[in-house]
UniProtKB/TrEMBL annotation:
Subunit and interaction comment: Homodimer.
SMART domains with a match to the protein in the record: LeuA_dimer (SM00917)
Species: Roseovarius marisflavi
UniProt-listed InterPro entries: 2-IPM_HCS-like, 2-isopropylmalate_synth_dimer, AIPM/Hcit_synth_CS, Aldolase_TIM, LeuA/HCS_post-cat, LeuA_allosteric_dom_sf, LeuA_bact_synth, PYR_CT
Cofactor or coenzyme needed: Mn(2+)
Involved pathway(s): Amino-acid biosynthesis; L-leucine biosynthesis; L-leucine from 3-methyl-2-oxobutanoate: step 1/4
EC number per UniProt: 2.3.3.13
Taxonomic classification: Bacteria, Pseudomonadati, Pseudomonadota, Alphaproteobacteria, Rhodobacterales
Protein name as catalogued: 2-isopropylmalate synthase
Gene: leuA
Amino acid sequence: MTDQTNNRVPSSASKERVVIFDTTLRDGEQSPGATMTHAEKLEIAGLLDEMGVDIIEAGFPIASEGDFRAVSEIAKNSKNAVICGLARANIKDIDRCWEAVKGAAQPRIHTFIGTSPLHRAIPNLDMDQMAERIHETVTHARNLCDNVQWSPMDATRTEWDYLCRTIEIAIKAGASTINIPDTVGYTAPVESADLIRRLIATVPGADEVIFATHCHNDLGMATANALAAVAGGARQIECTINGLGERAGNTALEEVVMALKVRGDIMPYATGIDTTKIMNISRRVATVSGFPVQFNKAIVGKNAFAHESGIHQDGMLKNAETFEIMRPSDVGLAETNIVMGKHSGRAALRSKLHDLGYDLADNQLKDVFVRFKELADRKKEVYDEDLIALVNVGIDGEGDRLQIKHLRVVCGTEGPQQATLTMAIDGVEHTTEATGDGPVDATFNAVKNLFPHDARLQLYQVHAVTEGTDAQATVSVRMEESGRIVTGQSADTDTVVASARAYVHALNNLLVRREKSGGDTPEVNYRDLS
């Protein structure tokens, strides 16, 4: 932008650096139903590394064998980012964490313990016992790894004197980063800034370490609290893509990064993030997590750069800066939505996908191109949103145990509705008929006839990708069985077909979870310190 406000923004060379610590794969994945597959975790980690995230918290290695394998492989594949694993305050956790991250070029151990009165009661430790535990575990972590981060969980509700005491112990034991978590999203921005400022001024050795901020969005103030903490002296922000996280979520990476970029006049801090990659990773995280982005979400929402008011539209046409403080291209959003059709070739598709932030390998492009042609035959005009859906929501995998082969539905004003389904189960085709209260219910019942299960449908969402009666429908489902929560997604111009494929996709994910030895089902409690 070239307006007068942005002319006052200091150059990057003159700005202090703020480290971006992404915890999408750890804290973000703790959202109920947001569990990702092993391949999806590796993919998201690669995208985070590529966009310039400084530190990737890849998981909680002792939680499950699946988490350990994912963290280990991410550590080995990382090109630029520090790879961090989470560990509770005990030797076994820390050893397991180190085993997972030690293959990284730049490993980090992040260990924590709850220091507030409520959290001290969980392991039944008094103040002195907990102080000794902190010294013992941080020292052990530092003996394994020269990059150790320590967090006093629920710091914002911990007594001031005790918080200072525990932080001093952690610094003396070798922690190089001190993270201050607002675990329950209780703090207000003025308190966030003041807390960091006072800790740096009070705790001996505070000037020799980096202070970090980790905020939750329970009161809608996570981004404001994180930025306030930076103003108070924090130089690391912990965040997630799309604000994904427990309860109301975490600080959103895209919000703090763009706030620092756009308002450099009052926040003279720089990050290493390539902001043009924001939209791509936002869409991908939304797809693999099963958590769609709300339309009016800041930065990455569908309406973030939309203008309907006549006055706004007139102003935009004359000068984009009238009602926009950043360009769509700043976050990797195409400036124009060029329509493609059945006569568009592979080169045009590759070019368009590149403009949308997708650089596909030849085999991936071949798959998308085949489905693009099929869609173009059914749809007169194919828009950017259609292409994004094609890339992000694939078809049944060749290795999937359950695959839909044929579906026919009879529905209308007179019920019950009927579905005839042919589905391959471990390569053998089976056919059944089922009825239900509507075509989707009948289809799901048919699937259940062929593949009986006890999974409970927790969520069923349908979103029209574009306008018009021939629009693709993107369907997301979330299912739960014995504590295992899985998601499935699909897209098709036929809503019932998309629903069936999403349902079967979720069941395939459930089968993967069942088959894993220990799976990704947590073997330990996040807050258990025994």
